[in-house]
Each structure stands twice: as C-alpha cells, then as structure tokens.
Design goal:
By secondary structure, the chain is α+β, with helices and mostly antiparallel strands. The protein is built from 4 helices and 12 strands, in the order E-H-H-H-E-E-E-E-E-E-E-E-E-E-E-H. Helix 1 packs antiparallel against helix 3.
Length: about 260
C-alpha cells in the first residue's frame, strides 16, 4: 500500500430514509389527488370535460404507479450512495496498491483479490468522477397525457446523463460471505517490475483503527499463490449527506432540496 485510508463517516441510513420517505409521500399523494378529481368530475361532469384526465386518462393502475415509485426510490437511494462515494473520493485518501514481481520469471495475468470487512464500502475511484445517474421521477399520476407528448412524462424529475460504458479493466467489487471483495484486473509482470493498481475509495460508518484486510495474488503460469494481511488506517471525515446533496438539489438553508412549490426536504 503506497497511500490510502478507510474514511470513517457518520451513518447515512437515517438521512437517506428521511429523504426517500419524503419523496414517497409526495408521489403517492398523487393517487389521493387523482381520486379527489374523479369525485369532482363525477359530481359535475360538464365542469371538467376539457381536462386531460378526461380526454386521455392515465393508463396506469394505482398498483402500477406504486411499483414505479418503489423502483424510482430504489434507484434514487443508489444515486445518493454514489454521491457520498464521490464526496469521499474528493476529500479522502483513496487506497492505492502497488504490485511487484520480486523474481526472475515473467508472471502472466497476475490477479490481486483484496478482502475487506463487510462494514467497509468500496468504489472504483475513477468511477466517482463520472456524472451521477439520477433517475427520473414517475410521471404525475392521474392527470392524463397527450399521446404525442408521452415521451416527456418524466421531465419533471432529475434527468439522467448520457450513458457511460464501464471500463473493461475496472476492478470488480462485490459483497460475498460477509466480506467486501475487490478483484483487480489481471496484469502481466516482468521480472522486478512494479505496477500501480487502480485506486479504490473505501469508507465505513463503523469505527476501527486500523481496518484489517487480506489480499491474495495468483498468476496463470504458476500454481502457487501469495497471501498476506494488510492494515489500512482510518481517516475520520466530517461529511453530511445533506450537505453533499445540497449543490445538486438547491441551496436552501433549512432543507436538502426544494420542490417546485417551495417546500423543502
């Protein structure tokens, strides 16, 4: 390890839950509003005959709309986690490993697998420089949509950027058997050659100092493997998810973001 630390942060689960609960209440409130409009039209059928709801009613059932909301909130939560990883990558110290061949033989396709406690989250640092893929909100329920404009139903939400193809050589990160595993892309090593592996942003809401990891290296042209432990120091960062999201969703002093009607969350 040439550089790096596990960023220790305050837990974000409660803040993320507060935000997603707020969004869920706002979106599901459309169902109640649509039901109220139906009652008003039923009681005065001539008063609302020109509304979009009458001319082109919403084709979704309430249950289908709830499923759209659940998927949106799941994607939104993942985007919030990516935003936090970006912030950690910006102000923290990514983990940087170098790999050296100490012998006289060429080593082919050497792969390093780093195993961290499952309390540690990991992201490829290069990925944290990409634009976050914020999902679009479901179209408002019950107001109807002119068919020719159907493609614009989701324009009220935060729009996703252009699609980015992932690097074929990026490390693979997964949770497995209570561990966070990072598989680095294989590299060829000449005798006494040293290469630097892709930096990884690592963080946790659990206290530890140091964080004890394990790594192993294998090659395709030798049958043995090398396995060692690795101590990674902790780096405490004062990052608040609400402050991280503020530049994206508005600069109000009291809330994370602001809706079109001025209400804050």
């Amino acid at each position: 390890m040439t550089a790096g630390a596990v960023a220790v942060l305050a837990p974000t689960e409660a803040t993320r839950r507060t935000i997603t609960d707020f969004l869920r209440d706002e979106l599901l409130g459309h169902l109640e509003a649509a039901d109220q409009r139906k009652k008003e039209v039923a009681s005065n059928p001539f008063g609302g005959c020109t509304s979009l709801q009458v001319l082109w009613p919403d084709s979704r059932s309430p249950e289908e709309f709830r499923q759209e909301v659940d998927q949106y909130l799941s994607d939104f939560d993942l985007a919030m986690q990516q935003a936090m990883a970006q912030a950690v990558g910006d102000v923290g110290t990514p983990l940087t490993l170098t790999l050296t061949n100490p012998g006289e033989d060429n080593l082919a396709k050497v792969q390093v697998v780093l195993s961290l406690p499952d309390t540690v989250s990991a992201h490829v640092t290069a990925d944290t420089e990409e634009e976050i893929d914020w999902p679009s909100q479901p179209a408002k329920y019950g107001e109807g949509t002119i068919p020719a404009l159907g493609g614009y139903q989701g324009m009220l939400g935060v729009q996703p950027p252009a699609y980015h193809l992932p690097s074929l050589h990026s490390p693979d990160i997964e949770q497995q058997e209570g561990r966070t595993l990072i598989r680095f892309a294989p590299v060829d090593l000449r005798p006494h050659e040293t290469v630097t592996l892709d930096p990884i942003t690592v963080y946790s809401s659990q206290e530890a100092d140091p964080f004890v990891a394990e790594w192993r290296a294998t090659a395709t042209n030798v049958s043995s493997k090398v396995q060692r432990s690795l101590s990674i120091p902790a780096q405490r960062l004062d990052l608040d998810l609400r402050e991280v999201l503020r530049p994206t969703f508005g600069d109000s002093d009291d809330g994370v973001g602001e809706d079109d009607d001025g209400s804050e969350w």
